[in-house]
Amino acid sequence: MNTNAVRALWAGGERAINGWLSIGNSFSAEIMAAQGFDCLTVDLQHGVVDYATAIQMFQAMGASGVMPMARISHLSPSEVTRVLDGGAMGLICPMINTRADAEALVSYARYAPNGIRSFGPTRAAIALGPGYDGNAEDELICFAMVETAEAMNNLDAICSTPGLDGIYVGPSDLTLALTGRRYRVGFDREEPEMVEAIKRILTTAHKHGIKGGLHTGSAAYASRAIDWGFDLVTAATDVRLLAENAKQTLQTVRGLK
Fold it and tell me: Which residues contact 196 (CB under 8 A, 6 or more apart)?
């Protein structure tokens, strides 16, 4: 089975830079993959992506050797099974609020006797090389998203879940949950209470020997997150890159008239 490039980076003390794919298109995924990200995450929760398209995106990413990940839409054994059978080597699950949620997530990603994942890695066994059945649990990465007040109250319990590889912070929902609508919704939090909450999640994850990931909206904030100690940062999304660069190009051309 293919080795997990992100695990290899972590083993060497390095950080992983992740790109985010919300546009359901294999060519745009191929373009992003060719830019040199350590991993790319296909977003099946908020992205305009269905399962069949996600598989095509994984296939397109394969030419560049980038490590494929997926964010599923919700905690469900069928959701976990499908993306892993489809070839994802990393998994992000939203709205993990309790230790029981985290334990369920881990069990869905592991074969018996360590979990309840049904065996049938239809594409994964081909795309990820021989030996998938014996090596998948050592290579796959499982992230639980912490993004609610309930999850913050259960942070130690979630982070201490055996088999969980990391916590992925969703700053938009976390801000809504902790502050209501006192602040704008968005990624790159500057409010002291939100920065403290994000750092607390990272500290708790590291205390329990697991990794911390953060969704950011800019290269500058991603760099700050790395300085704080985050092990994986999402530094760019296909939607934002397309929108911002298109807008900048248009403004520049209009300004040259």
Answer: none
Q: Which 3 state secondary structure label does DSSP give 38?
A: coil
Contact 4, 33 (CB under 8 A): no
**Residues facing 144 on adjacent strands:** 93, 167
- Are the beta carbons of 18 and 233 closer than 8 angstroms? yes
Tabulate helix, strand, coil % of the chain (nearest 5). 45, 15, 35
Burial of 72 (0-12, 13-18, 19+ CB in 10 A): buried
Q: Which are the catalytic amino acids?
A: 46
CATH topology of domain 5-255: TIM Barrel (3.20.20)
Q: Please state the pTM of the whole predicted model.
A: 0.96
Buried residues in 129-158 as b, exposed as e (16+ CB within 10 A): eeebeebbbebbbbbbbbbbeebbebbeeb
pLDDT tens sequence across 172-208: 999 999 998 788 888 889 899 999 999 999 999 999 9
User: Where along the chain do its domains lie?
Assistant: 5-255
Q: Which two tokens stand for residue 205?
A: 């994850």
Q: What count of Cα atoms within 13 Å lies in the side-chain half-sphere of residue 93? A: 30
